[in-house]
Amino acid sequence: MKVLITGGAGYIGSHTAQKFLQAGYEVVIFDNLTTGFRQAIPANAQFVQGDVRDQELLSKVISDHKTEAVVHFAAKLIVPESIAKPLDYYENNTSGVMSLARACIANKVDKVVFSSTAAVYGDANVEGLITEESITRPLNPYGTSKLMSEQILRDCQGPHGLRSVCLRYFNVAGAALDGSNGQRTKNATHLIKVASEAACGVRESVGIFGTDYPTADGTGVRDYIHVEDLADLHVLAIRYLEKGHGSEIFNCGYGHGFSVRQVIDQVKIVSGVDFKVTEQKRREGDAAQLVADSSKVRKAFDWEPKRADLNLICRTAYEWEKRSRG
Active-site positions? Predict the structure, then answer.
């Protein structure tokens, strides 16, 4: 099968492209390179530069390459930016999905895996694990744009036969175990990336945004999933659709969380660097705790994560950062 990966030059997309190639699929990457990197694209993947909002071009690429399934990553994803520029997020993320759906329908492509997010839950079910049935109440336009996109894809199954798997990511981090790929994102906001940069001397300090949350140490708690485990899930999702299953939503996490302080301490351990940490006020749009109940995806995909270790996640992220900085 030939798979089109939109946003395949990005952090998660490029790791996922590599997993598809290793699994024997042909891969076509479609990316506008605004936040992606040409050097992240696997050598054996075909590449077309373009924007998913360009429906005519996207449809032509699907037709020309005879792709049978799409994995859709291309999106903006920075929470504070989405609050400052909400229309950019709805225009890029939600309109992008509409363009993608129309291109798939026009070419009779009936399998889509969609990159969604735990941000759709907001502060839902703070006291326990978040299931796919938990209330969706996003705290920011980023989460709302993704939730709207999920609904668009679900609504396309009945009239158009477009089946989708929406994967709701929790916090993705780490780098390829063989050191071949990692997070190149400029001006990153993800904690483990930021802490790794601080350990390498690229940043002066790491900020803790909020120390008064209702958590054990007062800082936000997140479920961190290694990028290669998440990449594996996209291959399994396509196989799930290949078996004829209908549209579905799955949480992608490990089912246990770590606080901001715990993550910072772990990066200090793996790097051996005691970098500066500052305490700042909460950021608008941040939830106190987001931890996945991942039992549904484990059962449906017969999935058992291979890299569920915070030390491993932090170590691979730091080693990638150190290597990429020369």
Answer: 142
